[in-house]
């Protein structure tokens, strides 16, 4: 690799590792544990993404690519991969239920918003219920388990008549760090994968990746920016959710097209305030719109 590119990559890696290491240190994870995970990922990626054409992956090739010795690679190669975290499955199921509640006509009220739902129907009543919603959009997980999770994170509340009302338009774990760390691992990995694609793609094949940045804003404007960006971003994501759900073959009865693709559209908000109340960014720009790799 060209030395300039190598140096630029080193700087970028240190920048992206800084918040990650802050999280690790805050959780009491020592460097050695992190290094072990890095070694494992090096071997996994060498094995899955850097195979030679018509050749089976080998310990020797992984050792050459990663710089680890064959004994170390063999140990990591033979160890079982971590099982998918239960927190991720919990997130996916709860998020699907909220998404369907927001966009599905059967579970909407007269104004088009999410209707309040009884937990389940008795023999004398008809109409939609929370149990039906879970059955349709969360697989074989018991409706009571999904309800308990949505109540725990504050996304649903009980009304006086016993019905359930949706009060949050997204599943955001408010308490458990396990769920939040699961989201961290998946969402950051998706963003980095997009960046990796754009580093090597032709301009016409690049995936959308933009941001707006200003680095000399007064602190007094931040609360308003947070609120307005949250409202606008939520509306945009709900719009994409409606569009994509009409195309997803798990969500509709339509079974057209070939292959199986996953698409994720994410939005984040970042702010940084220095101790003295002024931006600590060395450069002073008038703002950048549309910045991308």
Task: Walk me through the structure.
This protein is mainly alpha-helical. The protein has three domains: 1-82; 86-166, Arc Repressor Mutant, subunit A (Orthogonal Bundle), CATH 1.10.10; 210-293, no CATH class. Helix content is 49%, strand content 3%. It has nine helices and four strands. The strands form two sheets. It has a two-stranded antiparallel sheet. Strands 3-4 form a two-stranded antiparallel ribbon. Mean pLDDT is 84; it is low at 277-287.
Question: Characteristics of this structure?
Answer:
mainly alpha; Arc Repressor Mutant, subunit A
Termini separation (Å)? 19 Å
Strand fraction: under 5%
**Helical residue percent band:** 40-55%
**Unreliable residue stretches:** 277-287
- Cα Rg: 23 Å
Mean pLDDT: 84
By helix and strand content, what is the structural category? mainly alpha
Strand order of the largest sheet: 1-2
- SS elements, strand count: 4
> H/E order of the elements?
HHHHHHHEEHEHE
Biggest beta sheet summary: 2 strands, antiparallel
- Put simply, the count of helices is 9
Query: Any idea how many domains?
Result: 3
The coarse overall form would be globular
């Amino acid at each position: 690799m060209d030395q300039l590119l190598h140096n630029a990559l080193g700087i970028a890696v240190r920048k992206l590792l800084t918040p990650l290491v802050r999280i690790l240190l805050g959780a009491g994870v020592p460097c050695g544990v992190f290094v072990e995970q890095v070694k494992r990922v090096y071997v996994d990626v060498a094995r899955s993404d850097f195979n030679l054409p018509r050749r089976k992956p080998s310990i020797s090739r992984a050792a050459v690519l990663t710089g680890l010795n064959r004994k170390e690679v063999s140990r990591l190669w033979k160890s079982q991969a971590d099982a998918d975290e239960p927190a991720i499955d919990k997130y996916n199921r709860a998020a699907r239920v909220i998404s369907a509640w927001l966009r599905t006509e059967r579970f909407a009220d007269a104004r088009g918003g999410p209707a309040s739902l009884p937990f389940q129907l008795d023999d004398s009543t008809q109409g939609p219920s929370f149990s039906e919603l879970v059955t349709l959009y969360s697989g074989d997980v018991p409706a009571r388990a999904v309800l308990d999770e949505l109540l725990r994170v504050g996304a649903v509340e009980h009304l006086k008549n016993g019905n359930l009302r949706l009060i949050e338009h997204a599943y955001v774990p408010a308490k458990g760090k396990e769920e939040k760390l699961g989201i961290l691992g998946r969402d950051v990995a998706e963003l980095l994968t997009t960046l990796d694609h754009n580093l090597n793609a032709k301009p016409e094949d690049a995936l959308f990746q933009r941001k707006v940045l200003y680095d000399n804003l007064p602190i007094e404007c931040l609360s308003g920016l947070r609120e307005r960006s949250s409202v606008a971003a939520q509306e945009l994501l709900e719009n994409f959710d409606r569009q994509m759900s009409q195309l997803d073959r798990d969500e509709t009865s339509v079974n057209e097209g070939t292959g199986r693709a996953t698409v994720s559209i994410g939005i984040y908000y970042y702010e940084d305030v220095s101790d003295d109340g002024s931006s600590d960014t060395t450069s002073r720009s008038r703002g950048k719109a549309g910045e991308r790799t």
